[in-house]
């Protein structure tokens, strides 16, 4: 079925983030939202805020299935030598056959080391990691581990499994890339990445041989960038290398107008009908900083104008 064009998504609330609530019994909307397939491909400049302990460098999980080999080759051909990122590639493989993907990517990728994951293997930046075809990888701190694949009769979503694990370990220093493939694997996992303020990037469906995985990812409304595989590495590097930080302006006795951050909060509260007073101040400023970066706004005032235009 041909993919319909979608209009750019406006700022809106999505699933609540569980770890920032002052009252854990109350649910709140997230400030996270992202452009869908109709959105322009922006140069992102990264989030501000804390990450889990030990998250010294970003780790990006890449999910691909049918038609994903070509996209993977293009992605890594455009990756510079010193990206500062680590990549874990998850594909749909036949557990009864040895995967040739590590060998193929080694031939096509000249700038980074390609490694097949072994139990308790340390994760290092500027490396690409792939699991054996009959194992699923998971990460603990900065070490990769392996578990046996489930029996064939069980539903198996290896991309979802790894992305969920990655979001818990890496938080804001996690990235998610969804490439060509059939089905919907990766959709649940990208939600977990976004809930923890990671970045979500999806292959432009027009450039994918199979649009199932990209299309279902885009339909969540949580995707930050929809771009071709050739553009992805550059976007990721810029995002993680240049974090944006904002601070609310101090109150002044004779100040006539509220600062832009407070205007943003008032606008979102009016638009979504949610009370953002339940959020901690640090959480709010981190989320706004993220949206400033994703929309390529220069500051909070410019981002506020973007919100007004999207009404």
Question: What does this protein look like?
Answer:
The chain is α/β, with parallel strands linked by helices. Helix content is 31%, strand content 15%. The protein contains nine helices and ten strands. The strands form two sheets. It has a seven-stranded parallel sheet with strand order 3-5-2-1-8-9-10, with helices on both faces. Helix 1 (68-77) packs across helix 6, helix 3 (158-170) runs parallel beside helix 4 and helix 7 packs parallel to helix 9 (300-309). The longest helix is centred in the C-terminal third of the chain and has 14 residues, at 281-294. The two termini are 31 Å apart. The model is unreliable at 1-54 (pLDDT under 50).
The portion of residues assigned to helices is 25-40%
**Which strand-content bin applies to the residues?**
15-25%
Sum up the overall morphology in one term.
Answer: elongated
Question: Overall pLDDT, averaged?
Answer: 79
**Number of E strands:** 10
- How many helices? The count is 9
Q: How far do the termini sit from each other?
A: 31 Å
Structural class of the secondary elements? alpha/beta
Give me the strand/helix succession: EHEHEEEEEHEHEHEHHHH
Write out the strand line-up for the largest beta sheet, numbering strands in chain order.
Answer: 3-5-2-1-8-9-10
Alpha carbon gyration radius? 20 Å
Any low-confidence stretches, pLDDT <50, length ≥5? 1-54
Major sheet: size, sense and barrel closure?
7 strands, parallel
């Amino acid at each position: 079925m041909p993919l319909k064009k979608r209009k750019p998504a406006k700022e809106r609330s999505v699933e609540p983030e569980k770890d920032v609530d002052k009252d854990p019994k109350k649910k709140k909307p997230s400030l996270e939202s992202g452009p869908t397939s109709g959105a322009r491909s922006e140069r992102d400049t990264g989030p501000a805020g804390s990450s889990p302990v030990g998250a010294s460098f970003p780790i990006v999980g890449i999910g691909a299935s049918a038609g994903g080999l070509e996209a993977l080759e293009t992605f890594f051909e455009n990756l510079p030598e010193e990206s500062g990122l680590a990549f874990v590639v998850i594909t749909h493989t036949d557990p009864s056959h040895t995967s040739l993907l590590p060998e193929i990517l080694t031939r096509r990728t000249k700038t980074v080391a390609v490694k097949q994951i072994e139990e308790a293997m340390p994760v290092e930046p500027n490396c690409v990691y792939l699991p054996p075809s009959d194992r699923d990888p998971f990460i603990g701190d900065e070490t990769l581990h392996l578990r046996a694949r489930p029996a064939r009769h069980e539903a198996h979503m290896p991309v979802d499994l790894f992305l969920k694990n990655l979001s818990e370990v890496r938080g804001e220093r996690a990235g998610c890339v969804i490439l060509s493939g059939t089905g919907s694997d990766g959709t649940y996992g990208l939600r977990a990445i976004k809930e923890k303020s990671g970045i979500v990037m999806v292959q432009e469906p027009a450039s994918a041989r199979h649009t199932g995985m990209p299309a279902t990812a885009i339909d969540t409304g949580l995707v930050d960038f929809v771009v071709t595989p050739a553009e992805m590495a550059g976007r990721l590097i810029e995002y993680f290398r240049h974090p944006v930080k904002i601070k609310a302006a101090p109150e002044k006795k004779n100040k006539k107008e509220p600062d832009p951050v407070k205007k943003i909060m008032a606008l979102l509260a009016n638009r979504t009908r949610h009370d953002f007073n339940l959020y901690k101040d640090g959480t709010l400023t981190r989320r706004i900083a993220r949206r400033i970066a994703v929309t390529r706004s220069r500051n909070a005032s410019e981002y506020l104008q973007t919100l007004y235009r999207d009404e």
